[in-house]
User: Which sequence fits this backbone?
């Protein structure tokens, strides 16, 4: 999920009721059209939103994103720790004991 979407969604809470991020691979109505103008594409997207036919992308909440960020950092630090232990054992010729 692009961070720009979360930034935009957090900046406009009072300006609009809901911000929709459409799945680009599943929105084919605009891609398959013969007329390629912004006005025509926006009309098609507005119609799809009104009729609840637009495939939306799941957008996690701010709390879930914070938890995922912490977990990604933990995984990265654990992988770095394992790499350093393996490199130390390889360079010294001994295996570390715990």
Assistant:
């Amino acid at each position: 999920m692009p961070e720009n979407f979360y930034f935009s969604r957090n900046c406009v809470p009072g300006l609009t009721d809901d911000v929709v991020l459409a799945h680009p691979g599943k929105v084919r109505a605009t891609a398959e059209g013969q007329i390629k103008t912004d006005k025509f594409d926006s009309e098609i997207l507005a119609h799809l939103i009104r009729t609840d036919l637009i495939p939306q992308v799941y957008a996690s909440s701010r709390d879930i994103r914070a938890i995922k960020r912490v977990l990604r950092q933990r995984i990265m630090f654990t992988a770095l720790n394992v790499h350093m232990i393996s490199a130390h054992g390889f360079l010294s010729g001994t295996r570390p004991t715990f």
In short: The helical segments are 3-11, 38-50, 62-92. The two ends are 40 Å apart (CA to CA). The mean pLDDT is 76.
